[in-house]
Amino acid sequence: MRPTIRDIAAKAQVSVSTVSRVLNGKPDVRSETQKQILDVIEELGFSPSSVARGLVLKRSNVIGFVVPDITNPSFPELARGIVAQAKTYGFSVMFSDTNHDNKVEKDVVRLMRSKQVDGIILSFDLANKDELERLKSERVPVVQIYRKSAKSTISTIAIDNESSGYKAASYLAGLGHRRIAHISTGMQTQSGHERWTGYQAALRDAGIEFDEDLVVVSDNNAAAGSSAMKKLLNLPVPPTAVFACHDMMAIGAYEAIREAGLEIPKDISVVGHDNLEISRLVWPRLTTIDTHKGQLGRAGVDLLMEEIKAGKALNKEVVFSTDLIIRDSAMALEPAEVVL
User: Fold this and answer.
1) How many CB atoms lie within 10 A of CB 103?
2) Which end of the chain is more exposed for a tag (fewer CB within 10 A), N or C?
3) Which CATH number covers residue 150?
4) Rounded average pLDDT per 10-residue block, the chain, 340 residues
C-alpha cells in the first residue's frame, strides 16, 4: 500500500497540517522539522521521492514556454520538441500564448515566476529586449528560442536566418530569375531582418540590382501573404519569382497567383520558409527552407537545464544551419522570359 500524508505525519511525529505545509513549500515550518519530514518522505518513498528532492533543492521541476502566437504553425513542432526533451529530465512544461502583446509577455513571465517555474524558454521580439535583460539581472534561467534579440546577452537557440534568406534567393537566381521578390516580416523581428539581409546578399552576388519595389512587408499569415502578392503582381513589371519569409505567407501568395490566372511555377516560382507540414501537402508542393524546429526545441531545453544547474546566466548562443528543401514550386526561367 502506498504511504499517505497521515503515515508521514505519524512517522515524523508531527501533525498532518505540518506535513501539508512542507509539501506545499510554506515558509512557516522550522528547518529541523522540515528536514525531519523530508527524511521520512524519502524513507517511505512518498509519491514520489522526487517531491522531497525538489523541495530540498527549491525546484518545482516545471519550466515555462512562452510563445508569441500559438496559431503560428511553427510553434507546435517547437513545443513538441521542448516537451519531449523536458520529460527526459523529469520536468513538465507550462505554456502561455501572448498574441504578440509586449505587455502580456511581461505579465505572463511574472505569472510563471509566481508559480515558481525553474526556468523559462521564450521567443520575444526586439521590443521586449529590456525584459530579457531584467530577467537576466534577477538571475532567472532564461533561453530565447528561434529568434535572436540584437545586442542581447541572453542564452539563445536560433537558426542562421541570414543564410536561409541567402539560400532561398540564390536558388531562384540560379534558376535564371532576375525579378525576385521578397515578402518580408520587416525589421521588427531579428529573423525578418536577417532573412532580408540574406536575400539582398544573394541578389548582389548574382549581379542582380536590388529593387525596393520588389520587397513587401507583411504579417505572418496566409491572408497577409495574399495581399502582399497582389501588390507585387500589380507592378508594371511583376516578379518572375518570390521568396516568402514564412510558408503561410507563401500559401497566401499561391492564392493571389491563382486568382490572377497564373500558374505555379510556370508563370511564377515560389519559395517559402519553415518547412511546415502544409508545405508538402499543397500543390505544387512548396520548395522551402527547413528550420528543424523539433531539434531546436530539444536544444533549448538542454541549454536551459545547463543554466538551471549553473545557477547563473551562461550567455551561450547556439545557431543551427537550415536546409533548402527542393520540391515543385520553382522552375528555371526560359531564356526568352528573362527580364533584365
Assistant:
1) 9
2) N
3) 3.40.50.2300
4) 83 89 76 86 67 58 91 89 94 91 86 86 75 80 79 83 97 98 87 94 97 95 97 98 97 98 98 96 97 95 94 88 98 66
